[in-house]
Amino acid sequence: MSRELATVDEGLRGSSRVYSPGFSSALLAMAYRQVARFLVARSRMANAVIMPVMWLVFFGLGWSAAFSTLRGVERALFGGLEYLEFLAPGIVIMSVFMAGFGSGLGVIWDREFGYLKEVLVSPAPRQALILGRLVGDSVVALVQGLLMAVLVSLVAGWPGTARFLAALAAAYVAALASSSIGTFIALSMRSPEGFHVVINLIMMPMLFISGAFYPIEPLPEWLKALAYINPLYYAVDLSRGLMYGVHSTPLTLDAIGLLAVSAAFIALVVAKFSKTYLA
Amino acid sequence: MSSYAIIAEELRKSFNGFEAVRGVSFKVRYGEVYGFLGPNGAGKTTTLSMLTTMIKPSGGRGIVAGYDVVENPVEVRKRIGVVFQDPTVDRDLTAWQNMMIHASIYGIPRSDAEKRARELLEFVELDKFAHKPLRSYSGGMIRRFEIARALLAEPEVVFMDEPTIGLDPQARAKVWEVIQELKRQGVTVFLTTHYMDEADRLCDRIAVIDHGRIIAEGAPDELKSRVGGDTVYLRAIDSDSAKKLLALVSEYGEAKLAADNVTVVLVASNAPSKIPQIISSAERAGVKIVEARYNRPSLDDVFLLLTGRRLRDEEGDWRIWGRLVRSRLGR
Ligand SMILES: Nc1ncnc2c1ncn2[C@@H]1O[C@H](COP(=O)(O)OP(=O)(O)OP(=O)(O)O)[C@@H](O)[C@H]1O
Ligand SMILES: [Mg+2]
Predict the structure, then answer these.
(1) Which residues have CB under 8 Å from B33's CB, separation 6+?
(2) How many DSSP H helices and E strands does chain B contain?
(3) Domain ranges, ordered by start, for chain B
(4) Best residue in A15, A32, A112, A121 for a mutation probing chain B (most B CBs within 10 Å)
(5) ipTM of the complex, rounded to two decimals
(6) Crossing angle, helix B95-105 and helix B110-123, to 10 degrees?
(7) In a structure prediction context, what are the per-residue pLDDT tens digits for chain A, which is 279 residues long?
(8) What single-letter DSSP state applies at residue A21?
């Protein structure tokens, strides 16, 4: 029936122009949007940089000074690294994770301020729209990670360009993973308040048992088990391994774990968003 | 055989058991401006949301630009432009950035998009503000921007949900102008409104919707002719002569004394030809008429006739006028 009507219409009205959106142009447009928004909302950048800097300064420098009184033991505790070196990759991953996870909030604001409708009523493939958003959010998170990486390298010691870039690549996967986790949670929430509760409930424990601040080997088994299902653990271990050559899990395993988590959450986000109707 | 831009067949939508739209059927021809006129909560937005593929109907069928809105939503989306009731812009970005993102997600090639975006922004008189972030725009500017954006992909059917709500008179006039221009270009427009003057002025045909049902449909003049006639107001010099006048004009139609006691209100067909007759017969009877005017029936009167309620009750207290004239007030 609808086919018939379409043919009739074409016959009657001649060929009117009908545009067809491509997958990549839609993806790029949504990625561009996230980056453009970030560039105008500098307070978001400040927000995502200030926290890690505070950790670096007040936590990192503090403990570093304390540990340095135990000459020799410090390096034994941290796999042969000084505490600041040990902490540096964790701080980078932390900033990337906070930025990526927090970007999920944008999904809720888009619903609240109506932009979601503009996106949903477009003929673009839903998958492209949401993937573009994840790409944009993770690039933004990576930019913040890059700032932190430069900063911590200056404080803890420059690891060399190749190692620096390798760690940054790991940070990008972590950014993608955290953006998709944050976005997945945000897609099932209605209020920004709810999302903030989730941030506090999930983000903090994830950070603490990621091995970013202390090694997880000495932890009790049940905490260790939690660490091993924490994608951040793999991200931190991987970037520490790439940056300073110290890691507790084989790096390929870290990489596989991190990529698997990213892929799984990206798939979940795409599946959920593709089914979105307003009511 | 004619061809329709929109076909709604028994469309219905329930929200958790509450029936917001209860079986709505209508057809809109290509090139027509079709209006949904109804009060708050009538089901206008819900119907529009189903036709624009934003919500799934609970029953019935919608066909837009030749495609079923449930079976083929992407084909529908390619052919429609939508201005939603509430803003759907990214306020942190500029009008131009919003336009270009829209172009990319609709698959409009960059050069076409830039050219058309420039033309459209000029058309809605926003070209000078194209590179300002939308958060600096007024409500009327955002509305105009959204209309321009909805036209970027050259849609066959444009949906507008209360396009002028909350706008000042100049901004409303501008939006009307845009819709009239669309009509000239042969674009099909589906709009919702609860302003009867707007529906009257813009629409070829109107569906009056209330409690999720279409209670009347037709051209504005057709609908108004259902009310039965014009309302004539005749002011006498004092209440005594008003009473004489009342007796005098009763032969022309239903007449009544208004609450001020000096005005006679008469419902009659073809007021322009009757007023001179009334004035001369009043003169012969020695009754002086100091003021005579008449109103044509409005869509509000139609609504009142059909539902016993006004579209907008807040417009003055009409009860004082009594049953006969209550439908002629409030303009
Ligand atoms: N998502 C929803 N969930 C529950 N009820 C809804 C939902 N959307 C609309 N309704 C209800 O359905 C009815 C019709 O709403 P709708 O928005 O279609 O009215 P409308 O004619 O557009 O009114 P208005 O002039 O106020 O925009 C209202 O009673 C409204 O409360
Ligand atoms: Mg509405």
Answers:
(1) B179, B182, B183, B188, B189, B191, B202, B203, B204
(2) 12, 14
(3) 4-224+307-328, 229-296
(4) A121
(5) 0.87
(6) 130
(7) 344 444 434 434 434 678 988 999 999 999 999 999 998 887 777 776 787 888 888 888 888 888 888 877 777 778 878 888 889 999 999 999 989 998 999 999 999 999 999 999 999 999 999 999 999 999 999 998 998 899 888 888 888 899 999 999 999 999 999 999 999 999 988 888 999 898 888 888 898 999 889 998 888 999 989 988 899 999 999 999 998 888 888 989 989 999 999 999 999 999 999 887 775
(8) -
Buried b (16+ CB within 10 A) or exposed e, B71-109: ebbebbbbbbbbbbbebbbbbbbbbbbbbbbbbbbbbbe
3-class secondary structure, B15 = strand
Q: Which residues pair with B264 in a beta bridge?
A: B234, B257
Tokens encoding B142: 């955002």
Using the CB atoms, write b or e for A239-259: b if 16+ within 10 Å. Answer: bbbbbbebbbbebeebbebbe
Ligand nearest to the CA of B211: 1
Contact A6 B49 (CB under 8 A): no
CATH code given to domain B229-296: 3.30.70.260
Of A6, A20, A116, nearest to B66 by CB-CB distance is A6
| E strand segments, chain B | 4-15, 18-29, 33-37, 59-64, 67-68, 80-83, 157-161, 188-193, 205-210, 213-218, 230-236, 254-257, 263-268, 289-295
* Residue ranges covered by each domain of chain A: 43-274
Q: Which CATH entry fits the domain spanning B4-224+307-328: 3.90.1150.10, 3.40.50.2300, 3.30.830.10, 3.40.50.300? A: 3.40.50.300
Amino acid, single-letter form, for residue A212: A
Mutation choice for ligand 1 from B13, B44, B55, B210, CB with most ligand atoms inside 8 A: B44
Backbone conformation region of residue B189, classed left if phi is above 0, alpha if psi is from -120 to 50, else beta: beta
Instruction: Answer yes or no: are the C-beta atoms of B246 and B255 closer than 8 Å.
Output: yes
Question: How far is it, in rounded angstroms, from Cα B77 to Cα B61?
Answer: 16
pLDDT tens by residue, B64-102? 999 999 999 999 999 999 999 999 999 999 999 999 999
pTM of the predicted model, to two decimals? 0.84
